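User: quick one, fold this
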Amino acid sequence: MNSRAKRDINLPAPYLKRIWLDPERIPDPEAYPFCLPLLHENFSLTFDRAITIIVGENGTGKSTLLEGIGVLAGYDEAGGGKGYASVDHSDALEKMGGHLSKALRASWLPKITNGWFFRAESFFSVARYLDRAALDDPFGPPPPDFLSHSHGEGFLRFFEERCQRQGIFIFDEPESALSPARQIEFLKLMRRMDDSRRCQVIMATHSPLLMAYPNATLLQFTKYGLEPTTLEQTDHYKAMQEFFYDPRGFVEAAIEE
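Assistant:
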């Protein structure tokens, strides 16, 4: 039996069951990211389905939360998979997930560290790193023509390969790399991952199309933290609904405000 087979666990996703904040591990409650309304001292997040989708406005802490979870899972907070070196830690992209992860506790059943943490902003730097790397990639090398494809097509090819295997996969606003048509292809990929029962997905998105994935846990940032919601209750859906009802009137009203 090879090492990859040994890592496969005969249990369905989700593997990460719960995370919570340990107040004793917070160095300064007034410092970022611990000053975020989300991270009150009783913060806890339970994962009871294979796919969890998180929505909220920019600045609410979605990316920071995903970074913290990524670090807990053994990934670099700038994106990538277990065993990959940092791909982008420039000052402009300073991450806070490492700080947050030190104050988080996690419950796993079992601990899974295979998978990938996708950040749209670092997608190409991850890809170029993989092209250069002389590492023994447990997922196999990227497609030889990976970087020659468009952003969206390259993204889908990349994850078609990696998401076939057991693991925990974290997506931070994947729609930024995808046209609406590619988002539909991504939904099909999510369905294959879901049907396999071997993949846990945690995703933050602004896309109502991705939020509509059936049977996912949908959570929305509010002033009280993360709360369950429905697609129709999200501000993103309401805005798009108004737009499609009267596109020209909606835009004219918006730019006049």
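User: anything notable?
Assistant: The chain has one domain: 3-256.
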